[in-house]
Design goal:
The structure holds two protein chains of two kinds.
Chain A (H helix, E strand, L loop, with lengths): L3 E6 L7 H14 L4 E5 L7 H4 L10 H5 L10 E2 L6 E4 L12 H14 L2 E5 L6 H8 L3 E6 L3 H16 L5 E8 L1 H5 L6 H8 L2 E7 L2 H9 L3 H4 L3 H13 L16 H11 L1
Parallel strand pairs in A: 1-5, 1-6, 2-4, 2-5, 6-7, 7-8
Antiparallel strand pairs in A: 3-4
Helix pairs in contact in A: 1-11, 4-5
Chain B lengths: L1 E5 L4 E6 L8 H11 L8 E5 L7 H15 L2 E6 L3 H10 L18 E5 L7 E4 L2 E5 L7 E4 L3 E7 L2 E4 L8 E7 L3 E4 L2 E4 L11 E6 L2 E6 L10 E3 L1
Parallel strand pairs in B: 2-3, 3-4, 5-7, 6-8, 7-9, 8-10, 9-11, 10-12
Antiparallel strand pairs in B: 1-2, 11-14, 12-13, 14-15, 15-16
Helix pairs in contact in B: 1-2
Classes of the chains: A alpha/beta, B alpha/beta.
Chain lengths: ~270, ~230
């Protein structure tokens, strides 16, 4: 099976790129794939924290690019999930420390060893994003159902299209179904109407994400929360499985009767 | 003695040498009419007398012996002699060569953009533009002519961007908060009746007007200032 290099990007900051990268990487690894998650945000690294691996950093991607070490020496193997690896980046450098050509070379090498290479892109449309995307074939665009995030996503999709990345697929994150119902939040169909790319997943707003990020434990490793299930479904769809989209409704909001009905459904 | 030259815009220049004596007018004109038989009738001719001092008599003779028999249209009488200029002016004959930059009657070429414009993409064109798709929020179309959006208009459109206030903007669904025509800027409101509807926007009496497109025949098209 051919290796896949996927950049996870958004344009807007804070919409869930790093969370998505970490959770998808863990979910794919749990499915038996050999996965490496690469932190593309030089100077503002976060993937290490979200994955709970910051205390194990010895060498970073920048060290490898500068010839201080081999690329293989930067890999951090996650002890919780077999076949899950991460490559951290430097916090003390800036985006100038990497070039597009260097990232392409890194991706070429990583392809030889991994089934999936997920690159966590920084926010923005400048060199940081361009470098992160340069070595990738495919893209996952993360957005929240907010006007500003959607506009930024549109911008980034335009740039990805001009860079010939394909396929470019959408993840709509932090959906609050009750707000959508009240007409206070864009629905997924509104977002799709504007962005006009294929939807690969919807993730509900879930407090569990905040806790998991702080603890450094991606949800998809062990949690069964809604967000965790959503990310796992996305991982399956990435791998080619046909998984129906789940309802965004929060279990808690359905109340006692709701839970009773759900119990009977099972 | 008399030269006939071609000029842009299908005009002819008849250069009458200053050395040509008045007594030679008749023969020279006749010769010129014969030579120019194929081109003179109906042609627009600039009569260039150089520094010659024209007399009333000479002017009459040029008309009677050349312009009228040749069936040409004398569009300008050019002389550098001040007295002659005053004379021509008094008589009311045209003295200024027609501008060579005539109004371009050839059809203005248009640009057709297939597909939507995403945020950050910009189309700039010296003519009409048709977008077969949407103009997303953050996209821009700047055209010297008209702009037609066969989709949602959410981004910024500027028609008549070089100052042509006869330009218009048409959109299948108006969802932009600002539109520009000529040198005017119109601000729009989400609560307005035309929001999300097909519209045509133009300038009328100095104001940017928006109306439904197509106009419904049975009633007056509702127009409002934006």
């Amino acid at each position: 099976m051919e290796s896949r290099v996927i950049v996870v990007t958004s344009g807007k900051g804070g919409v869930g790129k790093t969370t998505t990268t970490a959770n998808l990487a863990a979910a794919l690894a749990r499915m038996g794939k050999r996965v490496v998650a690469v932190d593309g945000d030089v100077g503002l690294r976060n993937l290490d924290v979200v994955m709970g691996l910051e205390n194990r950093i010895v060498y970073t991607l920048i060290d490898a690019l500068e010839g201080v070490c081999r690329l293989g020496q930067t890999y951090i193997r996650d002890k919780r999930v077999e076949k899950l690896y991460m490559i951290p980046t430097a916090q003390s450098k800036t985006k100038d420390a990497v070039s597009a050509e260097q990232m392409q070379q890194v991706c070429l090498e990583l392809r030889k060893e991994f089934d999936y290479v997920l690159i966590d892109s920084p926010a923005g449309i400048e060199a940081g994003f361009k470098n992160a995307a340069s070595g990738a074939d495919e893209a996952l665009v993360v957005t929240t159902p907010e006007v500003s995030a959607v506009r930024d996503a549109d911008r980034i999709i335009g740039l990805l299209e001009s860079m010939d990345k394909t396929p470019i697929r959408l993840i709509v994150n932090r959906i609050r179904p009750h707000m959508v119902k009240r007409g206070e939040m864009l629905g997924v169909s509104d977002v799709l109407d504007i962005l006009a790319i294929d939807l690969i997943g919807m993730v509900p707003d879930d407090e569990a994400v905040v806790t998991s990020a702080n603890r450094g434990e991606p949800l998809t490793i062990s949690s069964t929360s809604l967000a965790s299930r959503a990310f796992t479904n996305i991982a399956h769809r990435l791998a080619g499985d046909d998984v129906p989209f789940m309802s965004m409704e929060d279990d808690k909001s359905s109340g006692f009767i709701g839970k009773l009905i759900q119990a009977f459904r099972k | 003695m008399i030269k006939l030259k071609g000029m842009p815009d299908s005009m002819l220049r008849c250069i009458i040498s200053e050395d040509l004596l008045a007594c030679d007018f008749a023969s020279s004109f006749e010769e010129m009419r014969k030579r120019g038989e194929g081109v003179l009738p109906g042609a627009r001719v600039v009569l260039d007398f150089g520094a010659r001092a024209l007399s009333e008599d000479q002017i009459c003779r040029v008309m009677k012996e050349f312009v009228w028999p040749a069936k040409a249209e004398a569009v300008a009488w050019i002389t550098y002699d001040a007295a002659s200029q005053a004379l021509l002016k008094r008589i009311g004959l045209p003295m200024v060569e027609p501008s060579l930059t005539q109004k371009n009657n050839s059809p203005r070429k248009g640009l057709r953009h297939d597909g939507s414009l995403r945020s950050g993409q910009r189309v700039e064109y010296p003519g009409d533009v048709i977008v077969v798709g949407h103009v997303n929020d953050g996209a821009e179309v700047v055209a010297s002519g008209n702009v037609t959006v066969l989709g949602r208009l959410h981004g910024l459109v500027h028609a008549g961007a070089e100052g042509d206030e006869s330009a218009s903007v048409a959109a299948r669904s108006m969802e932009a908060l600002q539109v520009r025509v000529g040198s005017r800027v119109g601000s729009l409101d989400r609560d307005a009746s035309w929001w999300g509807k097909p519209v045509i926007i133009k300038i009328d009496e100095g104001a940017v007007l928006i109306g439904f497109w197509p106009a419904v025949k049975a009633e007056e098209p509702s127009k409002a200032q934006v």
